[in-house]
Specification:
Low-confidence stretches: none
Number of strands: 14
Number of domains: 1
Strand content: 15-25%
Strand order of the largest sheet: 1-2-3-4-5-6
Number of helices: 5
CATH topology: Metallo-beta-lactamase, Chain A
Length: 206
């Protein structure tokens, strides 16, 4: 699979949503379902069907359209936490196929209690634990931790865990917000960790 095969199908959304990624291949996969009511039509512009949805976590901007996606495509749904659409529970240390690649499941809470990231030999699907750019920082940002149930300390631990389990040579990062990054993913994640460790508010005026 080349990086050009992965499509952010929520690019055209004018309402707040996460990035939802369509990954074609042996197991055509949607990473997160987003909150945009146009997602089903957007998926159908590229493929006739999807085999599975894998969820990084279940905040509303990632899961609001999951029911609609399931109604349209009847996919298997892989998620850490329970959901009415979930068909397969995933856990830290497990694997799940995304497109043509097997991804390791890394439990990465802090931003959300049920947050997981998916790591393949070439790609990182990081959800909201680490992003490339999001308006707060460019080249290495991290999920917000200022709301109830969130923890900066746990997020920092999660980013460290992610670095420990990130293979050498990962070149593509597909995060829940901001742009897709191609290059030295480890360096971006290390930069995010350094910023998170400073313990300063991510949005100081928020």
């Amino acid at each position: 699979m080349s990086d050009t095969d992965v499509v952010c199908v929520t690019d055209a959304a004018e309402t707040f949503t996460c990035n939802a990624y369509l990954v074609p291949g042996e197991v055509t996969t949607l990473v997160d379902a987003g909150a945009w009511d146009g997602i089903v039509d957007a998926v159908r512009e590229h493929v006739g069907d999807i085999d599975r949805v894998v969820m990084t976590h279940q905040h509303g901007d990632h899961v609001a359209q999951l029911d609609a996606v399931c109604d349209a495509f009847d996919p298997d749904v892989y998620a850490y936490a329970d959901h009415s659409c979930r068909t397969h529970a995933i856990e830290d240390g497990g694997t799940v196929q995304v497109g043509d690649e097997d991804c390791d499941v890394v439990y990465t809470p802090g931003h959300a209690d049920d947050h997981v990231s998916f790591v393949s030999p070439t790609s990182l699907y990081s959800g909201d634990v680490v992003v490339h750019d999001d308006g707060a920082f460019d080249y290495g940002s991290f999920g917000r931790t200022d709301m109830a149930g969130q923890s900066r300390e746990r997020l920092i631990e999660s980013i460290r865990d992610l670095l420990d389990r990130l293979p050498e040579g990962v070149e593509h990062m597909y995060a829940g917000h901001g742009g897709v990054f191609h290059g030295d993913v480890r360096d971006v994640v290390e930069t995010a960790l350094e910023r998170a460790e400073q313990r300063e508010p991510k949005y100081p005026d928020g």
